[in-house]
Amino acid sequence: MDADFLGAVCQSVLMAKVLSVLFDQHEKEQFLATPLFDINDKPIRVTNLGQLDA
Amino acid sequence: MRYRYTFDVKSHTQLAETLHFAHQGFRFRLVESGRRFTKLIVETDSVVIPLPPVKQPTLEKQPAFSVPPDPFLDIVREEVRAIRGALALWGVVDIDVDQLLREFLPETPEETAACQITSIRYQRPDREKLPILPNTTDLLIRCIVSRGKLAPFEVPLEFQRRGLDYRYRDQYVEAIFNFFFVLEYLFAGGKFRTTKVVENFLASPELLAGLAEARSTFLEAVQSEDSAKRFREKYGNRSDEEVVQAIVELRGKLHHQSTKRTNWHPALQKEI
Q1: What is the pTM of this model?
Q2: Is this complex scored with an ipTM above 0.85?
Q3: CB atoms < 10 A from the CB of A7, how many?
Q4: What residue segments make up the domains of chain A, in order of their start?
Q5: For chain B, which residues make up each domain, given as ranges?
Q6: pLDDT single digits (tens) B5-63
Q7: Which residues from chain B sit within 8 angstroms of residue A24, using beta carbons?
Q8: Residue B169 CB neighbour total at 10 angstroms
Q9: Mean of the per-residue pLDDT values of chain B
Q10: Beta carbons within 10 angstroms of residue B2's beta carbon
Q11: Residues of chain A whose C-beta is under 8 A from some C-beta in B?
């Protein structure tokens, strides 16, 4: 139980830190400006832009 | 009836050929594969142990079965742990005392009739074969795109990754060490004395938010009422000050050992 709880505390703290980086406006723009391709080299578009930071 | 226990061995210990011998009521077989020591099989002598009567399955209920009483399992595991510790000095990496094959070997027609199962294999699935976690693809890509900005968190993230892996393998003490290092790295401000660490932890709104979220998610995920009760008593219903104090004291307790009082047994971490 101690390990589970301590792990959950750390998970929460680190998740908050990592998401604050990923959801930073500059990083979000970097992501959106990065072209993505499927296995056949066809471009992939992000369709759920409104949910990116949900 | 005889009982047989087969343990997988990881080793770079040479064994020219499979061999066996008897000692103090047990037969030991050391199995060779590729000139390495790869399995340890421990078998008991013949013993007479009353077996419970067979219950006839009914159409309404799932067929019931019972595991034959086994007075040897704990003893054999304990002895194999001692063997493992000694053989580690000669290239044995691990003798897996948790994931083993137990076999029940009836020797009379009565035992055969009463023995409803003949073996049990204990196996923990590899983490990569666990059910898939729901996720969004963008997070995978964004972690890669933002790798430069994530670099300052590399150390605590690595401790967390190791802690999760230890936790999955039931190595709770190593898991706690790694998890504690996450918090110490991020929030202790370079202090190591208990009072100062507690003070710095409590001064961090991020850590207190993490405590609150963990309390909530833990209670949602907990399986049994008994576990929920123990959690509430130890962490759930306590103040932040008490919880932080308990966490820091736990770190202190786990860092010490003595011949006078074994604080914790490295191979019996489920007791933690």
Answers
A1: 0.78
A2: yes
A3: 23
A4: 2-51
A5: 2-123, 129-271
A6: 999 999 999 999 999 999 999 999 999 999 999 999 999 999 988 877 666 666 666 66
A7: 146, 149
A8: 14
A9: 89
A10: 16
A11: 1-14, 16-18, 21-22, 24, 27-28, 30-31, 34, 36, 46, 51-52
